[in-house]
């Protein structure tokens, strides 16, 4: 089996509402590049990549000369062909590699008529648990804003009622820390017995990170995610706060993982199949974490159904997955896969059982959302449409006013 073509299609799939985060916003849609890798036997493997609200079509087209004639089973050779460590200092192809790895694993599974999780050692669980992913958000078409503690709790109640979540993650760093602390405490009061997570995307100062961490020590926290930036910053918070710390920002490769093992800064490593360059590197990283008693969870970077499938196959095979996975997925209005969005049941999503990734493209949906991308274009992920001229600093000093009219 040899690769004969790589096709990329950028889509814009609507969200319920624009989602705010500490560095900007998702502007009411996810812009994702869908990748199709065709082999000489007629099979087509699927991949997916984000890109901060922009298309990556040209970057994938440029890789066909590197990979034409390549055997999809040769994944290590593929890694060095397009993302060797020295060249990647200049071309930053890790996320491109991830999407192509997804597609090659999909091809392998289809060729052998087995699901990807069988290629990765076999599944240990039939379903993967997920946390609700709660954002402060602007009003959307038919969907209410989330700005106040009461609105946040009501939104979480709806998600729990519809999907069965028992873990709730608040994406913070938008409003002043004291205000978000009030919101977080409101969630804890509203859902006794459920677990909580808070993630301000590393924009708090050291003083604010310590103060926030100490203030939530008595709550049912899974972990405090990236309260401050950098391994040293996390280490200083970890030494003074009795809440496990997690990161997806500064342990995203093996060199950083080694540093975290040698000088513990984070207790939980959030494994992202895109940021780490594929599913297989995440499994290798999970093995290191298991050896050194670091927790792991599956991270979300804003997925449609193809990348969600990679997260499910990863979650299925990890023996040391003791935390619910993250997913933006429930914020989407639709998907580009056959059958539309995968369903939650009691806060879990079933691991796909079909050959390869177990999901296939819905051509009508793909065309519809490709047209929507052409109509709307991209957007700057690191800007907030409601705050013209604003940009985030680290640590941030210019938080949004929660009392201002949206």
From TrEMBL:
EC category: lyase
SUPFAM superfamilies documented for this protein: Enolase C-terminal domain-like, Enolase N-terminal domain-like
Gene Ontology MF: a single term: glucarate dehydratase activity
Keywords: Lyase
Record's protein name: glucarate dehydratase
Organism of this sequence: Nonomuraea dietziae
Pathway listed: Carbohydrate acid metabolism; D-glucarate degradation; 2,5-dioxopentanoate from D-glucarate: step 1/2
UniProt domain Mandelate racemase/muconate lactonizing enzyme C-terminal: residue ranges: 149-244
Pfam families named among the record's database cross-references: MR_MLE_C (PF13378), MR_MLE_N (PF02746)
